[in-house]
Amino acid sequence: MPSFSTYDGTELAYHLRGEGDPLVCLPGGAMRASEYLGELGGLTANRRLVLLDLRGTGDSAIPADESTYRVDHQVADVEALRVHLGLERMDLLAHSAGGNLAQLYAAAHPQRVGRIVLVTPTAWAVDLPVTNEHRLEAARLRAGSEPYDTAIAAYERILAGDGPGGRGEEEWDLAAPLFHGRWDEEVRAHWAAGERQQNAKAAEAYAGAGAFDPPATRAGLRRVAGEVLVLAGELDGNPRPVLAGALAALFPRGVVDVQAGAGHFPWLDDPGWFAGRVERFLASGV
User: What are phi and psi for residue 50, nearest 5 degrees?
Assistant: First the structure.
């Protein structure tokens, strides 16, 4: 397992999968080990995935200063990985909460990114928050059958603050079908693995006070010369496709696409479509 020492001496691990030009991948969670990304629907057929375990997750070390879990501090980790890999510029893929890290990195180092793929990203870094209305709008697209009616009721209780907290609590497990385009044995196992893969303490600090300066980040994103694909799931509430489009519009060469029938983990829902769309973008920018 390869690793490198980042700016503060913390040893960070990454995992290599596949062959081809490197694609640096930043996981979401927030602060979930990169294991859950798997082969990203088969992107390993044409790309060498560089899956970073963020500090304190997976095989990476816990930092001496745990305040550095805040996402803006982790921009330097991504830059240290680029230097370690010997890349002048790097193509970047980020999922979910990891999209904020990618946005902050691109704004700080626009000359160091090639093409960027943001997969069902959150965009707190540029002040495009997902609202409860967005989440429920997507959830209610599934109404009329089980397990979705039960999931919608649980999600409504969670968003109203009436359910127990915590990623692994019963209410979240009841709501879980809403976050996926399909709900079979493979997907249920992927969901169940999430709790052991996440550093809950780090997740709490990730978007802490002072992490974001949206006007500065928006200005930085206007300096990104490369193409950016923001990929939304048709059934995902985090973000809804309209919010994904607003994020794409912040980049000079941003485009949005919506994967039909997909939730928050689109490479699970239709691996062939997902890998084909991302690879086409990485190869040609469209």
Answer: -110, 95
As given in the structure block, the two tokens for residue 78 are 């991504």
- Tell me the mean pLDDT in the region 26-55: 97
pTM (global) more than 0.90: yes
- CA–CA gap between residue 205 and residue 211 (Å, rounded): 9
Q: pLDDT band at 167, cuts 50/70/90?
A: very low
The vertex-185 CA angle with 44 and 267, nearest 5°, equals: 30
Q: Residue 42: which region, alpha, beta or left (left: phi > 0; alpha: psi -120 to 50)?
A: left
What pLDDT does residue 169 have? Answer: 77
Burial of 89 (0-12, 13-18, 19+ CB in 10 A): middle
User: CA-based angle 235:264:144, to the nearest 5?
Assistant: 35
Q: What is the biggest distance separating any 2 CA atoms in the chain, rounded to whole angstroms?
A: 53
User: Other CB atoms closer than 10 Å to residue 86's CB: what's the count?
Assistant: 7
Q: CA-to-CA distance for 168 and 145, rounded, in angstroms?
A: 24
Residue 234 bridge partners (DSSP): none
- For 253, residues 6+ apart whose C-beta sits below 8 A from its C-beta are 224, 225, 226, 227, 228, 285
Report which residue type is found at 21.
D
Tokens of 36: 């859950």
Burial 188-204 (b: 16+ CB within 10 A, else e): eeebeebeebbbeebbe
Gyration radius of the chain's alpha carbons: 18
Between the alpha carbon of residue 128 and those of residues 39, 100, 214, the distances in Å are 29, 11, 9
Pairing of the two strands 47-52 and 21-26: parallel
Domains of the chain, with CATH numbers? 3-131+198-284 (3.40.50.1820)
